[in-house]
Amino acid sequence: MKTRGGSSGGSEKSSDKSKQVLPKEVKGKPKSGRFWKEPKQRASTMVKSKSKPGVKAAEWRQTRRNVKEISNSIKESIQGDSVARREREEANKLRREENAKKSEVVQVIRNPSKLKRMKKKQLRKIEKRDTSKMETKRRLRSNSLPEGETAE
User: How far, in whole angstroms, is CA 49 from its chain's centroid?
Assistant: First the structure.
């Protein structure tokens, strides 16, 4: 019969077991189910990048400068495009407003008593305009028309 833990011949087998390297962690599916998460490392075990000595450092600085110049030029071009787009939008807005003013149908109210008779809803729709420009345009048109024709 064999006995457990005896000193006869059992010490050699136990020393062989201690020499075998067992893995520190048993890998398997994480309990949380987040398989993409990696185990955290301590700061002391992380590989730290060392500064580049001599020539390599100069090359590294030069590449950094080049990258900065390229990124700055890209930023400037994007900024220039946005400024140009803003100016175009502003010009389009002004043109749209001018066209809207030109296409307005205007009825001049010369009798102020009409305004007093109007209801509030009608008064809200009324907008004041400077009609002196319109009169000058009308005069110019009437002067440029051939004789015998009248402007409406």
Answer: 33
Paired tokens of 68 = 């900065």
pTM, two decimals, is 0.38
Exposure string (b/e) for 9-24, b if CB count within 10 Å is 16 or more?
eeeeeeeeeeeeeeee
Is the pLDDT at 82 greater than 80? The verdict is: yes
DSSP the chain: ---TT-SSSHHHHHHHHHHSPPPSS-----TTS-TTPPPP--TTTSPPPPPPPHHHHHHHHHHHHHHHHHHHHHHHHHHHHHHHHHHHHHHHHHHHHHHHHHT--------HHHHHHS-HHHHHH------HHHHHHHHHHHHHSPTT----
Question: Measured on CA atoms in the order 118, 105, 129, 136, is the torsion positive or negative?
Answer: negative
The tokens describing 29, both together, are: 């599916």
Residue 148: the pLDDT is 57
Residues 6+ apart with CB under 8 A from 108: 131
